[in-house]
Amino acid sequence: MLNRAPLFLLYLNVLAVATCGLIYELIAGTLASYLLGDSVTQFSLVIGVYLSALGVGAWFSQYLHKGLARTFIEVELALALVGGLSAPLLFVSFAFVQWFQLVLFGTVFVIGTLVGLELPLLMRILKEHLDFSDLVSKVLTFDYIGALLASLLFPVLLVPYLGLMRTSLVFGVLNALVGLWGTYLLRPLLSSRGLAGLRGRAFLVVGLLVVGIIKADSLTTWTEEIILGKAVVHAKQTRFQRILVTNNRRGFQLYLNGHLQFNSEDEYRYHEALVHPLMLAATEPKRILVLGGGDGLAVREILKHDCVESVTLVDIDPGMTELATQFPLLRDLNQQSLTDDKVTVVNTDAFVWVGQEHEPFDAVVIDFPDPGSYSVGKLYTTFFYRRLRQIITPDAVVSIQCTSPLVAGQSYWCILRTMQEAGFKVRPYCTSVPTFGVWGFALASVQNDLVVSERLGKLENELSFLNDSIMANLFELPRDIQPIETEVNQLNNQVLVRYYDEEWRGKE
Q1: pLDDT digits (tens, 9 = 90+) for 113-154
Q2: Are residues 187 and 268 in the same domain?
Q3: Exactly one of 315, 317, 362, 367 is catalytic; which is it?
Q4: Domain hosting residue 89, numbered range
Q5: Which candidate, 301, 241, 245, 237, places its Cα nearest to that of 269?
Q6: Are 88 and 210 contained in the same domain?
Q7: In the annotation, is 367 catalytic?
Q8: 212, 73: one domain
Q9: Count of structural domains within the chain
Q10: How far is residue 183 from each of residues 5, 71, 74, 125, 135, measured CA to CA in Å?
Q11: Are residues 89 and 75 in the same domain?
């Protein structure tokens, strides 16, 4: 028989196992989104498979009759191994296994089944010591508290400070410690035969996972270098994204959540095309707003214009803007633009920020990542563009990157169609960036007819790509890049994300 103290400690076990189970689910969903894209689909599938596996585990528990305490401990140790090693396994599998989804959902299913076994086993262990209603209420209470704890800890503390790989290993250790602790708490229910071996396996699992924690950074870097095919020179997991800087003979590259943002060898083509047509179309732009562009490269180009009095950059991730000011390679490339006296950096969600009151801006550069997820897609909606109109002057000009019109024609024209629906006059243009191919942009204004000067004047001496001849040709769209009928990207449908996913995945 168990006394009251161990009963209370077993409730703490419920709290621990509930937290671990949800953490493993969140890790799988986050990794699937990071590696495969389309966060809504990946999280939906992971949650669906996990919940169904919980049911399988609960159903299977009815066939376990003998040695329930030992079985519970064995389940904890198995879960510690599978759950704790889930992030390393998925990272390595993505690099080497063709059918990665099978590994992903197989892992989720095994974890879910083991988690589904835990609570029924604990409840059956405790049923002889508590009245049924008391038992159910207490077990479920601690279970739900554990789920809440996991959901709060994961985005706020675990991912930013431990990273995905180390988080899974740490909670694997927690599961193993629950199992080891169980060999003492449940000692009255355990046979002496094989007890030493059970404790030995628990210590072995803890030791293995601790070694994994120590080597987590090296393993993460190794797998990312294999996936990207380049040496990783900087890596950081922030609350919002995974930031990687790689290096090869073509310069250095910046990746956000595995997606290439620029190559130092030719980024000037992109940023000159994004910024200077805007600055030449606007009438004496003094107050400039940059949305996204936390790397500071667009700001670098803006500061080449003497008329500029202030630049406000809004980027959600302080980790990105810190990289732009502290990482030597990027700081040199952006010419220390974010530390210029004219520049103010605001780390917040642009979607929320544009809905607040601000002194109107004369020009806006929108340099968001491509709309590959719904969290980014909301920044390309009519709702967002209408909010943007409220914080610009009547004759302000907006420039925006719009993905590749050659590869993703529907996505490109959907962005322009959406801006038109929001009340902007839009003028498309494109250029060639060797790393990305043909890339599309657009100028937009509420009132003006968007006439761009083709004369760069003395500015031409400061540019590496644009000249008067190229400026004259930017707005001449080739025959294979012509308007396509699309739906408007609304906040409630996010059709742009679907266009983008279909078009870019079709090219892989």
Answers
A1: 999 998 888 788 777 666 666 667 777 888 888 889 998 998
A2: no
A3: 367
A4: 4-223
A5: 301
A6: yes
A7: yes
A8: yes
A9: 3
A10: 15, 11, 10, 14, 21
A11: yes
